[in-house]
């Protein structure tokens, strides 16, 4: 009689299913917290400069000058 342990591999299947579920839970928690893509979530100097330029706080000339300084 089948006991319904995972993929039909007995205890090994149960362990694999448990690890898969833990992996999915881990990924969902990271996604919810916003840690999936830190480039867009952190305030790096280039990101702040991009935002200032988008808001019109600095001119195009200032933007490219500051961007080149940051890259050096």
TrEMBL record:
Residues 45-70 form the SHOCT domain. Keywords: Membrane, Transmembrane, Transmembrane helix. The chain crosses the membrane at residues 6-29. Pfam families: SHOCT (PF09851). This is SHOCT domain-containing protein. It comes from Paenibacillus apii.
